[in-house]
């Protein structure tokens, strides 16, 4: 049902692109339509539905599965980032100011209970961020022609992301080093939040490049003349 809505929505939103493939063979609700003008391919790789025509590509079962996996990976990456950044904002701007009205003993007890529960979310989000980030980067480099600024920016984004994950882990950890950092929780939360927002902004900047698909490499053959010996 979801794929049907996606394709029908795409055909309605992009009538010019769909005109080349709606030559009588298209039936509403179909996932892909082959016609003499090209093949209709639906993609949900971004926030909006898009419809493109490509005469050299058919949406095979393998291709549909890969597109769905890419979509799940992007969802996992975005939701994990929301959890970490949102959690840091809550701790910095809601929990710390609110906890100042508690006694030191009650404040420490509450902080321990929160860390005990929040640490599981941090570890899960960190794992999803790393795995989905690597997968998304590989697929992007494999699929698109990338501008020169892409690699330096993605490198900075990855380094800052590692720092953010390490700080988030330390702020919910139980080691002596973690306990020492947690005594100055306000400073480390503020620093981690600034770095996390910077990572998100860099990720948004990387999405602004022109999306031009890589052309498949064409094999060249060299004819060697036969010797008449």
Describe what this molecule looks like in 3D.
The protein has helices spanning 2-13, 15-19, 61-99, 104-143, 150-171, 176-182, 185-206, and strands at 33-35, 38-43, 50-53, 144-145, 212-213. The chain is mostly helical and 229 residues long. It folds into two domains: 2-59, no CATH class; 63-213, no CATH class. A hairpin with a 6-residue loop joins strand 2 (38-43) and strand 3. The protein is elongated, with a radius of gyration of 25 Å. Mean pLDDT is 78; it is low at 1-14 and 16-57.
Question: What key phrases describe this protein's structure?
Answer:
two-stranded antiparallel sheet, mainly alpha, 7 helices
SSE order and pairing:
Layout: H1 2-13, H2 15-19, E1 33-35, E2 38-43, E3 50-53, H3 61-99, H4 104-143, E4 144-145, H5 150-171, H6 176-182, H7 185-206, E5 212-213
Query: Rg from C-alpha positions?
Result: 25 Å
Tally of separate domains: 2
Poorly predicted runs of 5 or more residues: 1-14, 16-57
Indicate the overall shape: elongated
List the total number of helices: 7
Strand order of the largest sheet: 1-2-3
Percent helix, as a range, is 55-70%
Question: What's the pLDDT, averaged over the residues?
Answer: 78
Main pleated-sheet profile: 3 strands, antiparallel
| Structural class by helix and strand composition | mainly alpha
Strand portion, in percent? 5-15%
User: Distance between termini?
Assistant: 69 Å
| DSSP E strands, number | 5
The SSE order reads: HHEEEHHEHHHE
